[in-house]
Amino acid sequence: MPITLDQLNHAPLPEATQMLDGLYEHSPWIAEQALAQRPFASLAALKHAMVKVLADAGVEPQLALIRAHPELAGKAMVAQSLTAESTNEQTKAGLTNCTPQEFAHIQQLNAQYNAKFGFPFILAVRGPRGLGLAKREIIATFERRLGNPVDFERAECLRNIHRIAEIRLNDKFGFEPATGNAVWDWHEDLARHSDPGFAEQGQLTVTYLTDAHRACAADLVARMRACGFDEVGVDAVGNVVGRYLAHPHPNPLRQAGEGVKTLLTGSHYDTVRNGGKYDGRLGIFAPMACVQRLHAAGRRLPFDFEVVGFAEEEGQRYKATFLGSGALTGHFNPSWLDQQDADGISMRQAMQHAGLPATMEAIATLQRDPSKYLGFVEVHIEQGPVLNEMDLPLGVVTSINASVRYLCEAIGMASHAGTTPMDRRRDAACAVAELALYAEQRAAADGDSVATIGMLQVPGGSINVVPGRCLFSLDLRAPSDAQRDALERDILARLRAIAEQRGIDLKIEETMRAAAAPSAPEWQARWERAVNALGVPLHRMPSGAGHDAMKLHEVMPQAMLFVRGLNGGISHNPLESTTSDDMELCVNAFSHLLDQLAQEP
To answer: Among 14, 47, 304, 495, fewest CB within 10 Å belongs to which?
Structure first.
């Protein structure tokens, strides 16, 4: 019989510890210490309590826990001395049925890994969906993680151990994240569409108005209808728009604002080239799952709920970033229609080929009247390492960072590397290197600012020539405009001082500037109450990346919720991932926000 939280919360400590036996390999002390924090309001709260116990234990107990785990397809498996839990997991992953070649390769990887790190490779082989990873995925992950730094890999092992414990805990409680599983499956299904040249290589690329993009739109339309939306369609720029009305209405042409206001949400369904499955799309599917729940319960909200799958955010096919959300705010640039892609196809032609009107008159009708909207909320995978490193499933966004970008050139004097004394050089690359170190220190002093020199090139460089030119970029971001401006002012001042000291000339070109989008306090507070209700710790954080919420911020209040990413939080990459358990929590938090709003006077 499955355990219940009530049983666990009221059982004597020895009995409760026994209930949780086997979660952490040969390490019952983790669950035992976590039980001191009873009563637990949710499974999520129990999971985090155990994460906290291990985090506070220090490095040596953490290493002991890692070393208590068996190697994958290792000696313990051959000797049949694995725990019942490990036997089940390795069997499900097919590791007990390896070919001789696979077994030999895994043994070689085990030896290389142990020699480098001094502990066994740990991987939650049941994977982010709980169904089990394929052997090829396991081997590819093993090979990739061999390149990690030791401290990072130790932390990655611990994160996988917590994922193993999470799945085992779900089994003990008979809990299945059914909604999270469904949402995870929706992502997998939509990812079958990819642009030519990438699809053949198993890569995900969906750019604006390609056949794959239009197929994604058609799938979203069908799924929205299946979820129970009252009105679903594709608008004049390719956005997929679904509306769940406050009250059933016989008139399909009913306009927003007739008696009720609308809550707007959504994100983008286009991708970068060779991107991930969850960037943007999680912000469409999570609210769709909320509507599915509402529809199944026969329940209506006291406001209309509008979910938009924005057609374009990434700016990959055309230089028209935030095209989809920009159309809703009235900021669609007419000149975009004449832009051409790499094949010479204009945006106007692409729209016409997709059956869209391709006129500014039609696009102008998409602009929303802010007075008819309550606000905009967006769910998004974090696209960074913070939540992953903190072992937290959710984070509440305080602001989308202000940013500014520059393309620069340092111009010194090329000279012979052997004959030019150090005190007579005008080394352009050294000037930029000095700036890079200062920018790193200056941004770190703020705590939440970031500064990046992502492009650095010595044109025509040679191993025996002092660099006479150095091309470089500057990307500066901070949670507020004022903090961004101070960071920018200090770094540019230091750049000019370095150039003067070294006898270097400069060319500096500003290429982009975006204002910060601080979360509306009342909407941020709703997300915070939703997270607290789940029993997981509340973490507030800025967003360093841009999102559709930035555009909607220009016309209405907005706030965002982040969901933890796996694999170091990597995004814009095939390794981008999250678990169905975290997706479940995300949908639950969104549902709680809707409930809050429904109960407000």
So the answer is: 14
Give the chain's radius of gyration (CA, Å).
27
In the chain, the amino acid numbered 12 is P
Position 549 pLDDT exceeds 50 = yes
User: φ and ψ at 156, to 5 degrees?
Assistant: -65, -35
Q: Which of 427, 423, 415, 421 is nearest to 470 (CA)?
A: 427
Give the global pTM. Answer: 0.91
pLDDT above 70 (res 26): yes
Going by their DSSP bridges, the two strands 240-244 and 231-234 should be labelled as antiparallel
Q: Contact, 69 vs 22, CB < 8 A?
A: no
Q: Where are the beta strands (DSSP E) in 247-362?
A: 262-268, 304-310
Peptide bond into 357 cis (omega under 30): no
d(CA 511, CA 517): 19
- pLDDT, mean of residues 518-531: 98
Give yes or no for residue 11 having a pLDDT over 60.
yes
Q: Helix, strand or coil for residue 440?
A: helix
Three-class SS of residue 212? helix
Provide the token pair at 233.
């369609």
What number of CA atoms fall less than 13 Å from residue 183's CA on the CB side?
31
